[in-house]
Amino acid sequence: MKVRPLLCGFGLLASGLIAAPAASADSPTRILNTITSVSCVFETAQGDYVFFGASSTTLDGTSGSYMFVETPDYNMVSEGYGGTAVFAGNGSFTAEVLLHDFDTQEPLGLASVEAVRTSLAEPVTEELQERSGNSWTTGTVTTTDYRVDVGPVTVPGYTVLANDDDCTSEVITFDVMTTNPAAAIYGDSDFESAICVLEGFPNGQVALSQDRPNVRYDVVIDDGVNPQEAEGFLHLPGRTAGGTAPLVDLVTEQRIGELTINVELRRIGTRSQESDTFDGITERGIVVPYLATITVSTSDGRSGVAHCYAEDHTNKLIIRPAANDGGH
């Protein structure tokens, strides 16, 4: 029996979303960064809309802004990126960005925004605790909302009708610590059955899916005229579980009764395992086969049973330093 590969594991590494581990476990990495941002939507006397955004970060001291103009039916008129943004300590804000014609990319002139930012309330701090594989990120995220009093706004070719409710602003401060294990380990698991006919239940089929212990069930009764369905979740940490769900007419989308389902798992055969290593990446997969006995009954007296083949999949991706050294 072939073990299914861990979905998207290699893709995540290639895209850079999975960080390659260090040769040995390093000290945790601390990130202390404050991001300040302003976002605005302005109306114009000509009827088009001006979208503007700016931000700065203390991580590397950079800042920037952008602007684009759209018609009411979402056609782009002009755009500009890579503009300036200055967030002063007294709350004043200024930005400039060069706009270009969207179709020809010819320069149209310099747009500018001026405003004053004032905090609206006390900062709100949230505790952060996230896991990515065997790496943990913990710390705090503090958010402060600001009122924006809009000053002069200039856009080439437009008269901007600026109001103080056109902009929002916030300051988000991250103080987080991330562990750096010597090898990154990512896990994935899945439980899935075949689509099985319900014996004694005309036109009935059932299937199980998703990860244990919370297994999703889907029962479809389709005679070609009045299709019906019931779906839900069973808490299945062991070998047996049961539950009820509304039975719905798929044409009218109305509830027409209730369906009761019971599942009993019996392990069949032996556990199979596969392992593959390439460039410091080890992928391991384990499959445990089961026979699922599924009994179904409805509130109008129909009932049936299905004997379904099912598999419990466990996959693990281990990324060692060799995966990032470019060698083979």
How many domain regions? 2
Largest sheet: 10 strands, antiparallel
Helix content: under 10%
Number of helices: 1
Structural class of the secondary elements? mainly beta
Order of helices and strands: HEEEEEEEEEEEEEEEEEEEE
**Cα shape:** elongated
Spatial separation of the terminal alpha carbons: 29 Å
Unreliable stretches covering 5 or more consecutive residues: 1-23, 322-328
Share of residues in strands: over 45%
Instruction: Determine the mean pLDDT.
Output: 87
Radius of gyration (Å): 29 Å
**Beta-strand segment tally:** 20
Please tell me about this protein's structure.
The chain is mainly beta and 328 residues long. It has 2 domains: 151 residues; 140 residues. The protein is built from 1 helix and 20 strands. The strands form 2 sheets. Strands 11, 12, 13, 14, 15, 16, 17, 18, 19 and 20 form a 10-stranded antiparallel beta sheet that branches. The N terminus and C terminus are likely disordered.
Note the main attributes of this structure:
single chain, 328 residues, mainly beta, ten-stranded antiparallel beta sheet, eight-stranded antiparallel barrel, 1 helix, elongated, disordered N terminus
